Amino acid sequence: MTTIESRSPQAPSDLVVRVPDTAPDEVATAAGLARDAAAAWGRGPAQARAAALHACAEAVVSATGELTDLVVREVGKPVGEAGAEIGRGVAILRYFAQQALHPEGEVYPPADGVSLLHTRRRPHGVVGLITPWNFPVAIPLWKAAPALAFGNTVLLKPAPQSSAVALRLAELFADALPRGVLTILTGLAGTGEALVDAADAISFTGSVRAGQAVAVRAATRGIPVQCEMGGQNAAIVLPDADQDAAATAIAAAAMGYAGQKCTATSRVIVVGDAAPFAERLAAAVAALPVGDPADPATVVGPLIESRPVEAIRAAVRRAEAGGAQVLTGTRQPGGDGWFQAPTVLADVPPGDDLLSEEYFGPVCAVLPAESADAAVRTANNVRHGLVAAVYTQNLAAALTLTDQLDVGMVKVNAPTTGVDFHAPFGGEKESSYGPREQGTAARDFYTRTVTITLTP
Ligand code: NAP
């Protein structure tokens, strides 16, 4: 049996877990068991599913401390953010437990005046979830909770770097969920491909490259698919913005959890004279504590692997050779872990990858814009379209820019990061494919509608 390892990014010699790389035939077997379990789970009362999800929430509550420590250890998330993520996971489970009891259909006027013409919702059957490592609790739960609430069974393939957290969640849920209702399939991309080949619907979160491959594979089978992918998110700062508040918020949005969020700010577009704001932002970033994610003071921990550290350093060297200035980030943290100093750049040459690609690390570029219109053009000039922020005191400007930004989410005077699980979540262009997730949008994805005519 081939195995894969998950190592702690702050101490790579710390082997967190070694797990199987699940083979395609094992995925097919697991899908068969999940399909058997789907009959009872999906046709049973919604009240039973709601109660089971509430029990899952209680299991997470009782394991909060232990799970927080595991998230810190396995994916290097600063402990404050890790604890908040566990709390969010609990809230997600409770929210979707209640949604299981919401009205599920509509009644329409029948053509004959007497029939009962109505709709009901049915689960798809077995839903395959493919998830990244950066929110190892929240993302699996914001997919699994609605999938289960609406009567599907779930096969979850976590990213290898978050295998231990996924397995621990499943252990915590074992008493609440019948056998075969939620199964973790550890493994690499081949396991994910086999899952797309075996499931009745697929929900993916990860990079654009992998998401596009998943979307094509699922479309070939004709199954419902949603993919939430990467971002290259801009914050626009207008001259009338509260400059200090904007600098503080953008520093956290760009560098929190070492920039490893799909919603992190990568480009800061300043209307007017950019230099004073760039200095403010660099100072706010330089003040962020970098180090051991288990230390409650830490804001910027390690990166998940050595590869993105090397990629960011090479990109910064390339941009500098093209004339960019490093405003902060030249002094690299010491230690064994995969750390990168939070880095702010100015004068990045036009066309540089730092202005168009997702580096998924603690690096951002400050760009000047002559006008608000020019700022919007720059913000929209990427293949991604996840989220944007606008900093201004002018309501009319905020509303105008909100309408012009090609993104799925706009934050006014708020960081690009931060997700509300009870509101629709998703992006535009290459950031998303398929329907939105979370909130009430989740039910549309995890069910299909049946139209029924009942004539007496
Ligand atoms: P990733 O490399 O794309 O992997 C995501 C998941 O897809 C992993 O479980 C991965 O397994 C699997 N996978 C890769 N290729 C596949 C294929 N051909 N078929 C099926 N499954 C496949 O992303 P990551 O490094 O884990 O996470 C970082 C990325 O996620 C960033 O781009 C970030 O922006 C994005 N993200 C997006 C959101 C959002 O909601 N928009 C939220 C969080 C993160 P292996 O790792 O074994 O290949």
UniProtKB/TrEMBL annotation:
**Where does the Aldehyde dehydrogenase domain lie?**
3-451
Question: Can you name the source organism?
Answer: Actinoplanes friuliensis DSM 7358
- Which PANTHER family does the entry mention? ALDEHYDE DEHYDROGENASE-RELATED
Which UniProt keywords are present, listed alphabetically?
Oxidoreductase
Q: What's a Gene Ontology MF term here? A: oxidoreductase activity, acting on the aldehyde or oxo group of donors, NAD or NADP as acceptor
- Domain of life of the native organism: Bacteria
Which named protein is this?
A: Aldehyde dehydrogenase
Q: Which SUPFAM superfamilies match?
A: ALDH-like
